[in-house]
Design brief:
With 101 residues, this protein is mainly α. 55% of the residues lie in helices and 6% in strands. The chain is globular and about 35 Å long. Pathway: Isoprenoid biosynthesis; isopentenyl diphosphate biosynthesis via mevalonate pathway; isopentenyl diphosphate from (R)-mevalonate: step 2/3.
Length: 101
């Protein structure tokens, strides 16, 4: 993993357009220059492993994910309290592009 030249952070409420803006930036800059890093992916992957759940189903906007949402939030907060960089390290693993969104 090389250090990025630029890191752009997007935050906002659920359904506020963060993914849309990130995809638009990557589209304009190109996938060889820009990668989108999401903390939710590593969080859901680890949660699924520890709880014996279907990781792929946790990624979509389904009733399956909603059933576990509150516990996943609680679990993620506990993980971050114990190790604040846990999900960030997982998210940047393998990122080679100079711009991270």
């Amino acid at each position: 993993m090389a250090a990025p030249r630029s890191v752009l952070l997007l935050s906002g409420k659920r359904k506020s357009g963060k993914d849309f803006v990130a995809e638009e930036l990557r589209s304009r800059l190109g996938p060889d220059v820009c990668t989108i890093l999401r903390l939710s992916g590593p969080l859901k992957e680890q949660y699924a492993k520890e709880h014996g759940l279907d990781f792929e189903r946790l990624l979509d906007a389904s009733a399956y994910k909603e059933r576990f949402r509150q516990d996943m939030i609680r679990w993620g907060e506990e993980k971050r309290r114990a190790d604040p960089g846990f999900f960030c390290r997982a998210a940047v693993q393998g990122a080679l592009q100079p711009v991270w969104v």
